[in-house]
Amino acid sequence: MSEFKYLTDQLIADADLWNQVPLSLAERESLISQFLAGEIAVEASERTAGMLATEYFDLTEINGAMHFIPGRYKDMFTFFLQSLNRARGQRSAAIMPGVNTLVTGGPGTGKSYQISRFVESLAAKQTDSPVRVAIAAPTGKAAARFTALEALPNLLLECLTIHRLMQLSPDGSRAKYDAPNPLPVDVLIVDEISMVDLGLFARLIGALPLHAQVVLAGDIGQLPAVDGIAIAPALEFLAEQGLLTHLELTVTHRFSASKAAVYAALQSDGISAVTAQSEGIRLIEIQDTQALNLHVENYAREIYRTPGFTALAERLAQTPFPGTTWQKAAKDILQQLQRSIILCESNEGSHGTSALNRRIAAVCTGNRVTPIMVTANSYELQLFNGDTGFIFNDGNHEHVIIESAGRVKRLPLGRLRHWQIAYAITIHKSQGSEYQMVHIVHETRKNPERDHRLLYTAVTRAREQAVILKMH
């Protein structure tokens, strides 16, 4: 019997051993992850199989079967088990009212469309009181996609980050909402679910009232949360056990079938799937750091040192603040900055974001506009980790102009404490965003699965073309 098998058997038999065995934090997290992936869950489900097959069951028995689950996951499982009657089988063709649903699919398969149609169907129903709907996401940019739905009738709808929804403290140790003080929502929709850490997800679900409906949407092929435990195994387990109805979207609507085939091949084969005929992808062999630096400098001149880009900045400088004309001029620059980005696998090293941002900044000396990204939540400013914008030099002062939750804000640079230059960002930070073109610095590592996920996530950020800079 393997050491892992022996240990998990003992943990199931005696919950107190969880706090007695000499495990590091990483080992404990690994055990939890494997449990939720199904290694232990199979044994757990055998205890509740009869109850899960029916609409009505004895919660006392289920709680007994759950005694070995680490404490921070119990509220999450309690919610899904007590709302089992809202999971109507393992597969579905649409999000149905009252049905806890997992919506998965690659880029362009219609995840956002499904969410919008579902919310519109809720608004179309006449009810005695408005339906309270929260659309949450890990980043402000992802949550802002659905702000247009806030104007629908018969709903109290808010689009916001998960941290803001739960009103988490800056260090994440405390939240306003939990099981004793549940969130005031009837429907919770979480977009970009693959980016959510499992621990945060467990806290979020554990803070729901038991009558609430849950809809989770995302591309499970993308990268998991930067820190913490990947959520995909837990979602798969919940769907397999019938605790979530699975709506799997496979038909692409945004681009051709040939491009969809390339994306699918990237997930399984990585860089080897890219050929000269791959639609929407261009592969450039980069021999060394010097060649990469030359490419990046030429890129900077083509994107940020053009007469058109300079004209946008000058127009903003000459437009009085505030006013609708100023808003329009600022949004034009924000849209221009969304046209192209460099994506790196990490911040560090000669091929990372820090080095490339310094090099591009040197090329762009004298520009009025410098793209930036917020790197920590600021509840005082209502700005959140992952929000993007730019520093603007009006000739006298430097201001931050930033878009958060669909709104453009201006504030003195000194008020924003946590930010970084964002000519180049990490692939992790790019999740939830789209650009016309992305340039991807790709380095082959010793972990093929991680390499494939990184490359797939990066390439699918591009609406039109992805340029892969393959390092040697």
Automatic annotation (TrEMBL):
Keywords: ATP-binding, Nucleotide-binding. One of its GO terms (biological process) is DNA recombination. GO terms for molecular function: ATP binding; single-stranded DNA helicase activity. This is UvrD-like helicase C-terminal domain-containing protein. The keyword Transcription does not apply. Residues 422-468 form the UvrD-like helicase C-terminal domain. It comes from Turneriella parva (strain ATCC BAA-1111 / DSM 21527 / NCTC 11395 / H). It comes from the Bacteria. SUPFAM superfamilies: P-loop containing nucleoside triphosphate hydrolases. One of its GO terms (cellular component) is exodeoxyribonuclease V complex. The keyword ATP-binding applies.
